[in-house]
Amino acid sequence: MPYKTEYEHKVIPRYLDRRVKISLVEHAEIKRLYGKISQRKLAQMFGVSRRLIIFIGCPEKKKKDLVNRALRGGSMQYYDKEEQRKSIQETRKYRRELDNKKLLGKKK
Predict the structure, then answer these.
(1) φ and ψ at 20, to 5 degrees?
(2) Residue 1 lies in a domain
């Protein structure tokens, strides 16, 4: 059974979430420029991967990718156990710090 944290019911604000690569304003800008500028140039402009640019410009490709990934057995991180353990500990520590600073919001 997966480990459940005491922070499961709380949400990290978007500006503090380390998984977020671009802001909502940049996301809208990419959608506006998609098809007018090459994917590679957009990726360089925003400092993200070309794949992220494709998924923002063509949401149907992201949906298809998620389906294909599920058929392959899900999204797998290629960590060794020790590296994964360290990563999980670091994430929990970060969430605790945010909670102590009262920066976590309630999940809707």
Answers:
(1) -75, 125
(2) no
